[in-house]
Amino acid sequence: MSNITLNQYLLDRQQRLAHLTPDLTQLIVQVSIACKAISAALHKGALANMLGSAGSDNVQGEVQKKLDVVSNVLLMDTVLSGGKVAALASEEMDEMIAGNDDAKYLLLFDPLDGSSNIDINMSVGTIFSILQQDHAGAARFEDFMQEGRKQVTAGYVLYGPSTMLVLTLGDGVDVFTLDRDVGEFILTAERLSIPEDTQEFAINSSNTRHWEAPVKRYIDECIAGKTGIRGKDFNMRWVACMVGDIHRILTRGGIFMYPYDLKDPSKAGRLRLMYEANPMGMLIEQAGGAASTGRQPILDVKPNDLHQRIPVILGSKNEVERLVSYHQDPASV
Ligand SMILES: O=P(O)(O)OC[C@H]1O[C@](O)(COP(=O)(O)O)[C@@H](O)[C@@H]1O
Ligand SMILES: [Mg+2]
Ligand SMILES: [Mg+2]
Q1: Residue 87: CB partners within 8 Å, gap ≥ 6?
Q2: Domains assigned to the chain
């Protein structure tokens, strides 16, 4: 194992990556500090009265857990006091929050992903995405409306049996594990690569009756296994925390889907473009996988709202491409 800390790693990358400015490095470090504090709060759990609901709803009408609120405040306070963001936006807040007018970066985050896992002591995560602000002066809402392809950094922290930071600067995907004894994220895996094929899928199958035909066809074929046209058996996993599911896929391959469904036709999907789909799409592509809505690459979607929802299909390239081809094949619909 290396003894390379996140700070050392970023200083080293500054020598080779022109877009990794000292300000961007500092912003990434500030996010990692907030995530260490979130990790500590999660670790204390019931002992620090951290479990349960906060008694409020977020902008999307979802009940906020205490830890959703605590994580949001920790991230916001740490980053705003660091002075490297022009503005930030969070899944848990209605509007963007302005930062330093002289700063050059915009930060987006899902402070606590997989909220329904908090009270059962299962894995949760934080997801973040960094965009460049391309003009001087105060940030505006429109500055955030950039395709995912323009992200300069994306990552997540998985709070599982160990706390891991998974990061891309647009040059591959690297993994850091929090050493609690010394309080540092240490580099533990480099240049992740997702196998092109898989026999593992992740989807909330309680929504089966609401799916569109291409998704039904794909999942039916996986379930038919050796007896169907796929000629091999598939396994199914569902962590109920996107960070956990994506971490598994980055580690050993697989496909993760939260497709459009007709349960509530007014919703374009369950997951959010800016806080979940874009950062995860960048990580997956950087590790050689594919990320699609079924109809176009996630990273090419031009956003129109901070809290926009979107269908997501992410993971092993050949499986994602197969499901995308079913969306184009009239026989599926
Ligand atoms: O409740 P379901 O349908 O299993 O949905 C689980 C999905 O919802 C999410 O928890 C949504 O994220 P939040 O917890 O940040 O709202 C994903 O992490 C996860 O993949
Ligand atoms: Mg989430
Ligand atoms: Mg969340």
Answers
A1: 96, 97, 98, 99, 106, 107, 133, 139, 143, 144
A2: 6-189 (3.30.540.10), 200-332 (3.40.190.80)
